UniProtKB/TrEMBL annotation:
Any Pfam family hit: DUF881
Family: Belongs to the UPF0749 family.
PANTHER family in the record: CONSERVED MEMBRANE PROTEIN-RELATED, UPF0749 PROTEIN RV1825
Superkingdom of source: Bacteria
Species in which this protein is naturally found: Streptomyces marianii
GO cellular component, one term: plasma membrane
Protein name: DUF881 domain-containing protein
């Protein structure tokens, strides 16, 4: 019965190799590159459309100013100013527990989705005017998700170290990071197992505008 089950499951392939996992990893990387290229193409087309709209819309100066304010709030326009950058990283491959701490499990040594979400949430709480994760601007519908030890953000895949940059008052942003209970918990793992944590204050940063699609597929109007 075991041999028959193995035969039916394998369907002519070797069950004891990682070939299928490698193929899946290759597919994810390929799709990530394709999404990056599509993002660039979408951004270029959007710039052309916006230029034509500005030329032909016949709006007043006040209406144009209101539109620019909405675009800035939506994250589709570039944003500059003073900023704080936070870098998170997995523990070193040879990480050992600090004295007084138990030996680490595999999950203790890597960055998790909740760690990145804690940083993003704290920065918003600290009054960030805009946030960029890796090389992508966040908007209201952005979801920071991790699968294994990789980050999937807006159709693209990233590996650690992860960098989060927020434009705003650096003092307020750093106070919000320090006050976050989730980040305080993360700091325990930094101390115990050597997870990476670095906060840099930057005087002049320009965040790119979000260039992906802004269509909503699942939202419903409030009745």
């Amino acid at each position: 019965m075991i041999f028959v089950t193995s035969f039916n499951t394998a369907k002519g392939t070797n069950l004891r190799t990682d070939d299928s996992l490698l193929r899946l990893s290759d597919l994810i990387q390929q799709r990530s590159h394709e999404n990056a290229e599509l993002d660039e193409s979408t951004s270029a087309v959007r710039e052309d459309v916006d230029a034509l709209a500005r030329r032909d819309d016949g709006s007043t100066a006040a209406e144009d100013e209101k539109l620019r304010a909405l675009e800035t709030a939506a994250g589709t326009e570039k944003l500059g100013g003073r900023a704080v950058s936070v870098t998170l990283n997995d523990a070193p491959p040879n990480a050992q527990a600090a004295p007084g701490y138990p030996e680490p499990q595999a999950n203790d040594l890597v960055i998790h989705q909740q760690d990145l979400q804690a940083v993003v949430n704290a920065l918003w709480q600290g009054g960030a005017r805009g946030i960029q994760v890796m090389d992508q601007r966040l908007i209201s519908t952005s979801a920071v998700r991790c699968v294994g030890n990789t980050l999937i953000l807006q159709g693209r895949v990233y590996s650690p170290p992860y960098k989060v940059t927020a434009v705003g008052d650096p003092d307020r942003l750093k106070r919000a990071l320090t006050a976050s209970p989730a980040i305080q918990n993360y700091q325990l793992y930094v101390k115990a197992y050597g997870l990476g944590w670095k906060v840099d204050e930057r005087e002049a940063v320009t965040l790119p505008g979000y260039s992906g699609t802004v269509d909503l597929h699942y939202a419903k109007p409030v009745q």
